[in-house]
Design a protein that fits this description.
The complex is a heterodimer of chains A (317) and B (271). Chain A is an alpha/beta fold. Chain A has helices at 12-15, 23-41, 46-50, 52-61, 78-86, 121-134, 154-163, 187-194, 206-209, 223-234, 253-257, 287-301, and strands at 68-71, 142-147, 170-176, 213-219, 240-245, 305-309. Chain A has one domain: Thiamin diphosphate (ThDP)-binding fold, Pyr/PP domains (Rossmann fold), CATH 3.40.50. In chain A, strand 2 (142-147), helix 7 and strand 3 form a beta-alpha-beta unit. Classes of the chains: A alpha/beta (317), B alpha/beta (271).
């Protein structure tokens, strides 16, 4: 077998033994590992590729699973699963009796909270952090990794609003790739768009207004930079916020270029990202397409018709 | 979204907002189709009851990915909607058996709808290539006899009708089995139900959703209310969370695959 760092890592304990210089090499291996498996087994791709460095840095810098890490939604947690003892069974991802496509408490101690639907991570991690305070565990870290689409939902705001008046040792990491399953929308997205690595927009920062210590934006693909940020943040008690800018699909050119399609691309050629043709010729349409086409047909004749969707059905034509 | 940018709204991951926004628009006379996956409408339950149903606003909820969804697993199966919607007054719940019915429901919904309405349809492909038929207005709450039979009636709701049809056709005694499509979970087609309960000793209900509180339970309630003592068997998703797997595997697990349905039919016929 090819010499590989990834193959020596059966848990974050192994990860913490390797030198920081080796981490970018590991990132490369981890990315390839994800690509190779998702290429043949299918699943969610872009989100996990975007957080490879962030995942490594988090498990390297924090004492997981004692420190509690919550992934929002969970599409992006493949790297987390692979580094936390599930590398050899990762090929069963999303299959019957195999690994779940999302973090799941019954699957691993490292999966601190079951997810699948969006925007729950801040509330869950805040709950854990307040519980830790009640137990007198004041040095424990609680980390919620939230995407920019998820953080714009009501529940995320509710969590931030509560955290801001708590003494909870909560770190909210905004994984800002400007896209959910579809490109993010709304006024908060417009604000985030102005943020660049090293440049925080001057506009009033609503996160700071909610009593969070705001760090960043930092480059989410620079492991060293991430580690430095984490060390700073560890010293600060109370709610803090790290704005990380990443590229969904990072490392696979086609996935970077077409982030919507490569959210969950189906089978593809691992080296090039070329999608394998899936023949739908002669098959009936999907119900969602019949819905979309029919609604357009009706809307052409009835100008009172309005369509509303919370992100999930944009793919319908 | 692209065809009518001014009348199409992607509100982000914000189901509660989507539902109440739709309600607001409906108060101003617009015909609002609010498209949400079944599993995500769970997140806007109070909005559905408080902002839409109590005010009886005719918002049309299009619940894509109703039923089992396969590899996304327990967090994403849309199996609870019939049960959680059925108890809400004013709400019409429709489940088309195929694409043509879906189209006709969407068409019917924009003609003078008086109540909120949910239309649930599954993830994945339909069953017909000739889906683009001329629109036909449907009667709300009307079921349909799909195939005649003599001894046993199967009453299905939604696209699982296809598996039922294949199951019936796969058994030797298919002439003994009648297949009805309920079309609607609410209101129920009472005329059709009285006909079924008077004509058949044995009834099987089939739905791609939880049995507890689901469509089959509605039929049990109907039977109890009218003192029918027919034997009723309810097929659907049992009282447990179904994990991930291929659709074929999951159908087998919940016994909604063609073979399992056929076995259920035969076991009842030979009782």
């Amino acid at each position: 077998m090819e010499k590989s760092i990834l193959n020596t890592i059966d848990s974050p304990l192994d990860l913490r033994k390797i030198s920081t210089e080796e981490l970018p090499v590991l990132a490369k291996e981890l990315r390839k590992f994800i690509i190779d498996i998702v290429a043949t087994k299918e699943g969610h791709l872009g989100a996990s590729l975007g957080v490879v460095e962030l995942t490594i840095a988090l498990h390297y810098a924090f004492n997981t699973p004692e420190d509690l890490l919550v992934w929002d939604v969970g599409h992006q947690a493949y790297g987390h699963k692979i580094l936390t003892g599930r590398r050899d069974v990762f090929h069963t991802n999303r299959q019957l009796h195999g690994l779940s496509g999302f973090p799941k408490r019954s699957e691993s101690n490292y999966d601190t909270f079951g997810v699948g639907h969006s925007s729950t991570a801040i509330s869950a991690a805040l709950g854990m952090a307040i519980a830790s305070n009640l137990k007198g565990e004041f040095s424990k870290q609680h980390i919620a990794v939230v995407g920019d689409a998820s953080i714009a939902s009501g529940m995320a705001f509710e969590g931030l609003n509560h955290a801001g008046v708590s003494k909870a040792n909560l770190l909210v990491i905004l994984n800002d790739n400007a896209i959910g399953i579809d490109p993010s929308v709304g006024a908060l997205k417009q604000y985030l768009t102005k943020a660049k690595v090293g440049h925080k927009p001057q506009q009033d920062n609503i996160i700071e207004a909610l009593n969070f210590n705001y760090y960043g934006p930092v480059d989410g693909h620079d492991i060293e930079g991430l580690l430095a940020a984490f060390e700073e943040l560890k010293k600060i008690q109370g709610p803090k916020f790290l704005h990380v800018i990443t590229t969904k699909g990072k490392g696979l050119q086609k996935a970077e270029e077409d982030q919507v399609k490569y959210h969950a691309p189906g089978k593809f050629v691992p080296d090039t990202g070329e999608l394998l043709p899936s023949s739908s010729e002669g098959l009936p349409l999907k119900y969602q397409d019949v819905f979309g086409l029919t609604l357009v047909e009706l809307a052409e004749k009835n100008e009172k018709i309005i369509g509303i969707t919370p992100q999930c059905q944009r793919e319908a034509p | 979204m692209e065809a009518f940018p001014e009348r199409a709204f992607d509100v982000g991951i914000a189901e509660q907002h989507a539902v109440t926004l739709a309600a607001g628009m409906a108060t101003q006379g617009f015909v609002v189709y609010c498209a949400i996956y079944s599993t995500f409408l769970q997140r806007a339950y109070d909005q559905l009851i408080h902002d839409v149903a109590i005010q009886n606003l005719p918002v049309i909820f299009c619940l894509d990915r109703s039923g089992l969804v396969g590899e996304d697993g327990a967090t994403h199966h849309g199996v609870f909607d019939i049960a959680y919607l059925r108890c809400i007054p004013n709400l019409i719940i429709a489940a088309p058996r195929d694409e043509v019915e879906l189209r006709n429901l969407l068409y019917t919904a924009q003609i003078d709808l008086k109540n909120p309405m949910a239309i649930r349809y599954p993830r994945g492909r339909g069953v017909r290539l000739d889906w683009k038929q001329k629109f036909k207005k449907l009667e709300i709450g009307k079921g349909e006899l799909l195939s005649e039979g003599t001894d046993l009636a199967i009453l299905s709701v939604g696209s699982i009708a296809e598996n039922v049809k294949l199951a019936v056709n796969s058994i030797e005694e298919k002439d003994k089995v009648a297949h009805y499509d309920a079309g609607f979970v609410k209101p129920l087609d009472k005329v059709m139900l009285h006909e079924i309960f008077s004509k058949f000793k044995q009834i099987i209900t089939v739905e791609e959703g939880v049995i507890s509180g689901g469509f089959g339970n509605a039929i049990l309630e109907f039977a109890a209310k009218h003192n029918y003592t027919n034997q009723i068997k309810c097929l659907g998703v049992p009282d447990q969370f179904i994990e991930q797997g291929s659709m074929a595997q999951l159908y087998e697990i919940v016994e909604l695959d063609v073979k399992s349905i056929a076995i259920t039919i035969k076991s009842l016929l030979h009782k």
